[in-house]
Structures are given as C-alpha cells and as structure tokens.
Specification:
Elements (H helix, E strand, L loop, with lengths): L1 H13 L13 H17 L4 H19 L1 H12 L8 H9 L11 H26 L8 H18 L1 H12 L8 H12 L8 H29 L6 H31 L11 H12 L8 H25 L7
Helix pairs in contact: 3-6, 3-13, 4-13, 6-7, 6-8, 7-10, 8-9, 10-11, 11-13
Length: 330
C-alpha cells in the first residue's frame, strides 16, 4: 500500500503522462503560492528589519525637511508674529530675503535635520513594533489600531528629542547673529533661561502629536493598502506621494492650533521677552487679541510645506524599505 501511494505521489508530481488527461491541473500554482507566502514571512521576520526601518526613517526625515526648509521657516515666522494684524506670506518672504543670503532661507535647518532624522527614524521603528502589539490580528490591522500605534510612537519620539525642536525654533525666528549655531543656542538658552526653557510647549506638543501622528500614519497605511490592491502590488510613485500628502494634510488641520501654541511657547523668552505663562495663557491671549483665526496663523504655508514634505518623506521611506528588502505591505 505504501509503495502504491509513493508511486502515485511521484507520478502526480512528475506530471501527466500519455493518456492521463484527468491529471491536467498540476500542484504548481499552489506550490508557487505557498512559496510566495513563505518568502513574504521570511522578509517580514527579517532579523535586521528594525535597523532597516530605522535607516529608512532617518533618510526620509532628513531629505524631506531639507527640501522644504524655506517654507518651514516662513511658517514659523508667521506663527510667532503675535500682532493683531498678521504677517502676510509676502512680508514673511521679504523678511527672509532682507537678511541677505541664501542661508537665511535655511536658518535652523541644521538643527531641524539633527532633530527630525532620528525622530522620524524612531517614530517609524516604534510604530513597526507597537502596531504588532496593539493589533488583535497582525494580518488585518484596523484603522483604530493603526492610529493608536502611530500616536504613541510619535509622542515617544518627539518627547525624547524635544529640546532640539526648541533650539531649531529659536534659530529660525531669532534675529540674525543672536545665535551662532546649534551648540551656541543650546548654551545660551541653558545659561539665560535654565533647563526648563528647552521644554516650553511640551504639553501642547504631546497633546498635539497624538492626533497628528495617529491620523497621519493610520490614513497613509490605509491609503497604501488600497493602492497596492488597486495596482496589483505596484502602485505608481506619484500615488504614494499623493497618499502621503493627503494623510499628513488632514492630520495637520486637526492638530494645528496646538502646534501654534507650542511654537509660541518655544519662541518666547528669546531676548529676555516673556509673554506667556503657559499653554492656557497662549490660547487665551491669542483668541483675545487675534480671534479664533489667530490659532490658524501660518496654516497655509505650513500646508504648502507639509504636504510636499510628507509626500517626499513617505515616498523616500517606502522606497528605501523596498531597496533594503523590507516587505512594503508588512
């Protein structure tokens, strides 16, 4: 019996012979499908996956922020201008041009890259791990689970590197020659205002990053899944860029007032000027002096900066992962 079974098995594997038209459906498609599944599991369980995701995130943050640095500085100039009559885009642009060199458009970008590269790397790496813990079914992660994972990972990453964000803001909005670089700014802030000054605006930042990172990551991953299904695993590059732009734009509108409050708290104290006593005081004075619209000052240039930066960032992240052999759908 065992010999017969063995012979029949070998016969079926070898393929149909003459007169065996009933055996026209070989097991190759099933084997191919099984092999593909096994290969996907091997890529997903890559022991170097964490390092690859970290590197992909670092490159994503550095490239995307440098590409949009001038618009980022313009946004901060508009955010920190607290007069009843807001600074226009043209006035903000002229203010940067008046500083006399191309470097003025990239003021604070060095600190931004030093901060954003590890922060983005850490955020994506943590999200990759936390998502697998939060999800009830790792093969079918729900939108809510993606949002929770993204929010937590974004908050941890930003909290750990927050002092660099304060330094970047000071370098971008302070008059020329106030600081001579990242280390000088850090030294002056520490000497003149104390360690606590590095953490001004941390509370609104933590409150704001939870919905921002959560919505951004959840929506992008949802959009990406749709694109991979629609284009049979090979979505156009511009579709990935567009998905990143859309997800981050929606997330920014949701969390923008808190981002503005954070920026004002980070900037105040420069030059010895102390204007606010905390997060609630910024909200109260902004609404009293500038109206509710004041909470959205700089939103347009921020979206003009954020949308392409996010699109570039997500695209670089996905393409780098792919180049390093990380399964793009995992």
């Amino acid at each position: 019996m065992s010999f017969a079974s063995s012979s029949m098995s070998e016969f079926q594997e070898a393929g149909p012979g003459p007169g065996s038209s009933a055996l026209k459906v070989p097991a190759v498609p099933a084997k191919s499908k099984q092999s593909a599944k096994l290969q996907e599991q091997l890529v997903t369980n890559d022991p170097l996956r964490t390092y690859k995701v970290f590197l992909s995130g670092a490159l994503s943050g550095a490239i995307s922020r440098t590409a949009t640095a001038p618009v980022d500085r313009l946004k901060m100039l508009l955010q920190t201008h607290d007069g009843a009559k807001g600074l226009s885009l043209r006035q903000g642009w002229q203010k940067m041009m008046a500083e006399g060199s191309i470097k003025s458009f990239f003021k604070g970008n060095g600190a931004n890259v030093v901060k954003i590269a590890p922060e983005t790397a850490l955020k994506f790496t943590l999200n990759d791990s936390i998502r697998s813990i939060v999800a009830q079914d790792p093969d079918k992660v729900r939108l809510r689970e993606r949002a929770i994972s993204g929010g937590i990972s974004g908050a941890i990453a930003q909290g750990l590197l927050y002092p660099l964000d304060t330094i970047r803001t000071r370098l971008a909005v302070s008059p020329t020659n106030t600081y001579n670089g990242i280390l000088h700014a850090a030294y002056r802030i520490r000497r003149d205002e104390g360690v606590a000054a590095f953490y001004r605006g941390l509370t609104p930042s933590m409150i704001g990053i939870l919905p921002f990172a959560g919505v951004d990551i959840a929506l992008f991953e949802a959009f990406k899944e749709i694109l991979y299904e629609k284009y049979d695993g090979r979505p156009p590059h511009m579709a990935i860029v567009g998905a990143g732009m859309l997800s981050s734009s929606i997330a920014q509108v949701v969390s923008y007032p808190l981002a503005l409050v954070r920026t004002r708290l980070q900037a105040h104290g420069a030059g010895g000027q102390v204007k606010y006593r905390g997060m609630v005081d910024v909200f109260r004075k902004t609404i009293r002096n500038e109206g509710v619209r004041g909470l959205y000052k700089g939103l347009l240039p921020n979206l003009l900066k954020l949308a392409p930066a996010a699109g570039i960032g997500w695209f670089v992240f996905e393409e780098t992962k792919l180049a390093l052999g990380v399964n793009p759908r995992s």
